[in-house]
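As described in the Methods, two query proteins were run sequentially through the folding procedure within a single session, without resetting any intermediate state between them. The first query and its resulting C-alpha cells are shown here.
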Amino acid sequence: MLTMTKQGLFCRAGDFYIDPSRGVDHAVITHAHSDHARRGSRQYYCVRSGEALLRARIGQNIPVKTFAFAEPFEINGVKISLHPAGHILGSSQVRLEYAGEVWVASGDYKRDRDPTCEPFEPIPCDVFVTEGTFGTPNYVWEKDMDLGKQIHDWWMRNAARGVNSVLFAYSLGKAQRVLGVLEPFADRPVHCDPSVAELNECYREQGIALAPTTCLSELDSDRRPVGELFLVPQSFLKTPRARMLGPRYETAFASGWMAGGRGFGSYNKGFVMSDHADWNDLVRTVLETGAKRVYVQHRGKGALVKHLRTLGVDAYPDSDMVPGEMFQLALF
C-alpha cells in the first residue's frame, strides 16, 4: 500500500503522500517538525490538535483539513485515520485501510510519559512502518526519572552560585516538554528564545500547562540576569542576545543522545529526554501491533531489523519499500 519515493512515503491507491519532502497534491502530515511538514502542497491533512503548530511552522494560510484522533476519512477510496504517536502535541500515526489490508505508518513516536502531548496508542495492523531513530540496544531510557526535578535542581544549584543556566532544546516539542515537566516546580519565569515562545502559545491554547515564561525579545538588553534559566536552541550562543548571559553560565542539552553520557561533549550537563522510543519500546511496539510485516525507517535499520527477525517478525529496512525492491521481494 505504501512505497518509498524521492518525495516520501507514497500511497499509490489513494494518490497521496505521508510527510512528503516537497509540495504535492495531497499531504498527510504526522506532525509539524520541519523534516515532516514542508511548504507547497495543495492540500494538507492533520489531526486537530496539531493544526496550530502546522500553521505556525509552514504558513497560516495553508489549506488544511483536520480530524479528531481515530476519526475516519477517505482520500481516493483509501480509508485513513490518525492515532496518537506521543512524539509532540498533535503527532499522529497514520492508519490506512484498503482492499482488506491495514497498514500503519508510525511517524516519530515515544512511549514515555509526557504531560504536553497525547499518549501513544498501539494500533493493530497487517504491516507496520516504524521509525528507528534510537534503534540500537545502546539507547535505553530510565522510565522512573523525574526530569522536571532534575532540571529544576540543576537550575537552583547554579542560581545559588549566581550562575545562569542555559538549557538547549529543540524549539518545537522538546522545549515545551521541558516547560511541562518544570511546571510543578518553577516559581519564576523561564526565559525562552522567540522561536520557542511562539510555539508555547500553541500548546497553551490546547490547554497544556507549561511553566511561566518570558520571551528573550522582551528583556531589557541592558539588564544582566543572574541565576536564571534560558531555554534556547543550540544556535543561541552565537547570537547577540547571548551577551546578556555574562561570563558565568553553565550549559546543558536535553536529548536522547545524552544516554549513557555519550553525548555530553562541550555541555556541562546532559538530561536524557527523548521524544523518540528507545530500543525496548521500539521492539515492544512492533510486537504489540501484531504486524505480519515490518519496515524500519531511520537509523535503526540494521540492528532493529536483525533483532526483529530473531523474534520471528518479517522485518525489512525501508529501502525495501522502493518500488523496484518491493517487486523483487514479491518474487522472492
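Immediately afterward, the second query was submitted; its sequence and C-alpha cells are:
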Amino acid sequence: MDTPVGLAHFWSQGDFLTHAIAILLLLLSVSSWALIAGKAAGHWRAGRSHDAAITAFWSANSLPEAVAALKVADRSGIFAQLALAGAYAAQAHDANRGIGAGVSVSEAVTRALRSQIVKSQAGIEHGLTFLASVGSTAPFIGLLGTVWGIYHALVSLAGATQVVLDKVAGPVGEALIMTAAGLFVAIPAVLAYNAFTRGNRIVLAQLDGFAHDLHAYLTTGARTRGNLHSIETAQRAAN
C-alpha cells in the first residue's frame, strides 16, 4: 500500500519487538497451513481407500494374496501395515522359540495388532499438538504486539500539549494489525485441530473394527496359513 498509513508505514514505524512478533506469527501461519494441507491429504487418502482396501483384502483367495491386494488398494498404508503385523504374528507364532512361545496364537496376534494400532495412532495424530499450541498461543502473541503498540502510542503522547493524529495513528494501527494477525493465525489452526480430531476418531474406529475382524480370521483356524516367506516379503516392501 502506498498510503501514508499503509502496512509498509506501520512496518517502518515498528521496532525490533514488533518485527519479531510479526515474523513469528508469519512462521506459525505458514507452518500451520503446511501441516493442515498435509494432514488433509492424508485423511482424504484414508477415506477414499478404506472401503476398496477392505474389500480387496476379504476378496482374496489366500492370506498372502489378501495382504498383497490390501497393500495395493490402501493408499494411506495404515490398514496394510495392520494386516501385515497381524499376519506375520500369526504365521510366526509356530516358529517362535523365545519367551513368547508359551502364549497362544490369539494372544500373539492381539499383541501385534495392538502394537501396530498404537503406532498408527501416533502417526495420524502427529502435528495435532502443534495446531493446538498455535491456536491457543497465537492470540496472546498478537496481544503482546497490541500492548506494545498501545505503549508506543502513549509514549508518543507524553509531554504533548495536544493530541496529534499522526503521532498515535501509527502505534494504534500497529496494535490493531497485531490483534488481527494473531486471530488470523489462531482461527484456522483451531478449526483444523477440531476437524482432524474428529477425522482421527473415524479412522481409528475403522482401524479398530478391521483389527477385530482380522483377529477373528487369524485365530479361528479357518484361515489359509499361506507362505511365511510371502508375508515377510510383503512386510519388507511395505517398510
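The radius of gyration is 28 Å. We note this only descriptively and draw no conclusion about the first query from it.
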